[in-house]
Amino acid sequence: MSAPYFDECSTLNIPSDLKHAINLLEQFTGETADLNIININIGLTCCAVISVEGMASSQLMAELIFQPLTDFAKKDNTSADSVWKFLTEESLMTSDRQIVTEYGKLLELLFSGFAAVITDGIGKACVLGIQGFEKRAVSLPESEQTVGGAHDSFNEALRVNMSLVRRRLKTPSLRFQLLQVGKLSRTDVCLAYIEGRADPQILDTTKQKLMSIELDTIFSSGYIIPFVDDSYDRSIFSAAMTTERPDNACAALNEGRILIMIDGTPGCVVLPTLFSDNFRTMDDYCEKTFYTAFSRIIKYFSFILAIGLPGLYAALVMFHPEVFPLKLLLNLAAAEEATPYPPVVEMTVLILLFEIMREAGVRLPKAVGGAVSIVGGLIIGDAAVKSGMISQPLLIVVGITATASFVLPSLYPAISVLRIVFILAGGLGGLYGIAIAAVILAADINAVDQYGISYTSPLSPLREHGLRDVFARSSFGELAKRRTSLP
Amino acid sequence: MRKFTGFSLVCILLCARIFATLTFFPNHMESGLAYGIGAVVSTILQCILLVPAARLAQLCPEGPCKAAMDKHRTLGTAITVCFMLYFMYEAFVDAGSMAYFTDYFFSVNMHRALTALCCTLAAVYLARLDTAVIGRTAQIAFFGMVGLILMMTLCSAASMDIMRLDLAVERPFEVIGRAVISETERCECLVLFTFLAGRSQSSPQKSARYFLIAKGTLVGGLFILVTAALGAFGMRTKLPVFALASFSKNLITERSDAVFLLVWVFMGIVKLGVLIHCATECLRLLFPSLDKMKSSLFCGVLPAFCALPLLLSYKWERVICSEHSLVSVVGMSVIIPLILLSRPAAASHSKAAA
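^ inputs. structure came back:
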């Protein structure tokens, strides 16, 4: 069975005979049930209006296609040429009108919600943009919530996302380039950039990478990131970030970065990115500098806590108890003495249980989610401690770690895995193991680069440009002079 | 191969040098102040010693081995082999020392062989990355080291006594002279500078200047810190900096030796990674068809493997207590650059004659 791609029909021209054209179309689509073909006579000329059920708006079709054509049918001259001229030159049916000669393009547009009008005797189709498929309204961002910033987010419709960006950047230098990626899905992918700000070399390289993707389907940004991120397989961190906030995306465009928006994905990919971008939020630009600096330091501290605190606790309690002050040491010793397992085992089990609870909380219906929280809190928090299976200090450590890890949603996948690594390193090798894990982590972060830009820039290599913005937000006067932290 | 910044180079060299000082002080030290003065004098002398290396780095950014290979195949091979063996020997000493001292002072539940293997594998992982990446990791190690020194200084400030900084020795100039030689013998960072300086984005002379100023300050400062805080005890104990960290108490922790372990291991692995990286480059210059991963593994695992018999038979002290050779440091960092600098004139004469 041959691959179900557009190859067979992509370059085949639409014949001028209407019946033959319709037959070919039905043959290519296998007479699929959602393809609507309405034959209509416009005076002396036979036409066919083709659309896909649920993709094109019936109301718009009636108002913008049927009504004008029905009115035109009353005229004296209804030859094929005059009908075609009316469709293509003398009427304003929709703002998006394309002339298509090949079946490949015709099918792409039909499946994108366009309606096509084929006229007998004219070997072309007039395709009109009257999309009416169901789409989600612009809503609150799910994972990047802020206090002071905007409260809208991208949704699955590419055109809506493009408009959300255009609305915020009313500059003619903002450019959108559309590509189709995915041999089967032909997903619309849009490259957005500001001419004169984005590096042309990075833009060209990104475009080439996107066009070289050989996948059949593209359903989310996760399908594309491995192809545009050079260090995807080399590091646990990704040099391409996703955001669901239009304001974040526009700020990135202003800094000379490139957005990749994918139809069907409520977000966009931003590249190149720096490690410090994971610690910036739109709230930073809504508050005063002193609070922003405080908030940033809290985020960095949360990152270290989320990754290192459980492993550090296991290492110090098991191998280096002399570090603790005497009172704390006695409390810890009493708490750990009562539990049956070594701290590293308890810590690993608790963290894994927490991840199971978190995963369940994400997948469960909202109505049941509350019950899971109660069960998790009761079982893990109360019963496990009272039964002596885990110690209270350990539970405090896990609670702090879990809270700290949610401060940085973009780094959560890396934090989840690294946390376990550090627990095992600390539990097996003490601070020696922690140090080795820390070196490997530092090397891993430093090894990430995208298009020649180091992921740890401007901290390493040390550059004055943008350095202050890593730990605190520069004043708007400085930001006006220096608009980007990219080197 | 991407170039790295001058700051990265300085951090790499400081990691290599300060790690040795943090690990242990030279034997038979009679006065901490004398040794601190000796360290500063040695640093001043190194300003002169590094002149040929800096000049060579400026003329031949690809490094001394490649430059030697381009000039004369046999000479290049000999120089490359010298550098490779030197780096592998230093990797052998460092891998063994890390395993020895980790086991000696910390209750790590790992066998010495496993300790050596873990740090070697971590260093191999680092060594197979680009030099620029190693430089960036060295920057983190550097800041960790500065933090450790500051913490030790603040925590032991109460017990510091300036009266302990005395030159109460019989022959102070002799002691200072011995300190100068001991300090220079331990400076494998000079050989690293000779090898890596050409890849720095900034001028080699500038990098050398900043490196020597920072090294003199840090090494001299460490000796004075230990002497002022611990006095004569510091000079008698085997690992004075570790002893200082153990006695450093603050509001949060009773001792700071755990922090010392963290920073010391971090710096040790960075240094070991740099040495393996340089040895790997030499090996690949001799055998260009070799894979980078396999070369790194060979250059890392072989020294660790050689250290195992001494570690397991508890005879590692013979290695660390033995005197380092000044000849190797001076030969690699001064003589070889001088030979290579003298070659261009001979090469151009021979070309003109032909």
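Chain A touches chain B at residues 316, 318-320, 322-326, 428-436, 438-440, 442-443, 446-447, 454, 456, 460-462 (CB under 8 Å). The longest strand of chain A covers residues 35-42.
thumbs up if we can close this ticket
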